[in-house]
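Researcher: Sequence recovery benchmark, item below. Answer with residues only.
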């Protein structure tokens, strides 16, 4: 577990290689239909607990966020897109089961006025050299929460220097 107290001064993420970020969320379209949105809302914490019990699945870090009283989402950092896909499609795990249950409920929804809950996700793979980070007097957060922190000087004081950073494996290859 990473420390959650602020790290003094300027730091950067200790990320090596590509960064895989998943944004996944829900929007309550009709508050009066908790039978539709409550299973979705409760499903994500269950999946996150499942993933935290087995770090080999590839979830490095996550944060739950509220965009509005209707919209909730999770920012997740993964080891690789392959591990993310493997988790999402494994029929023995919670995501696959939750998605199947949601689709069954959706097929049974005969309302003409629209759906009660909206879902979305976006996945990004940022290649090494296509991201940088800086934190000031912050606990490990975001990419640094996923990979650890380094003193800023290890990667460069300017954003351009941090973008130009290459891991040892890339330099050797």
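Model:
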């Amino acid at each position: 577990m990473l420390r959650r107290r602020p790290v003094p001064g300027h730091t950067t993420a200790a990320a090596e290689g590509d960064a895989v970020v998943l944004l996944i969320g829900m929007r309550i379209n009709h508050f009066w239909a908790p039978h539709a949105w409550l299973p979705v809302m409760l499903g994500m914490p269950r999946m996150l607990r499942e993933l935290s019990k087995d770090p080999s699945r590839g979830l490095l870090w996550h944060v739950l966020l509220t965009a509005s009283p209707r919209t909730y989402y999770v920012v997740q950092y993964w080891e690789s897109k392959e591990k993310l896909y493997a988790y999402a499609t494994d029929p023995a795990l919670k995501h696959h089961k939750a998605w199947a249950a949601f689709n069954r409920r959706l097929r049974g929804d005969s309302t003409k006025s629209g759906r009660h809950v909206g879902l979305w996700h976006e996945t990004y793979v940022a290649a090494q050299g296509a991201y940088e980070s800086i934190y000031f007097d912050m606990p490990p957060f975001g990419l640094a929460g996923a990979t650890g922190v380094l003193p800023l000087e290890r990667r460069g004081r300017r954003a351009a220097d941090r973008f130009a950073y290459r891991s040892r494996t890339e330099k050797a290859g």
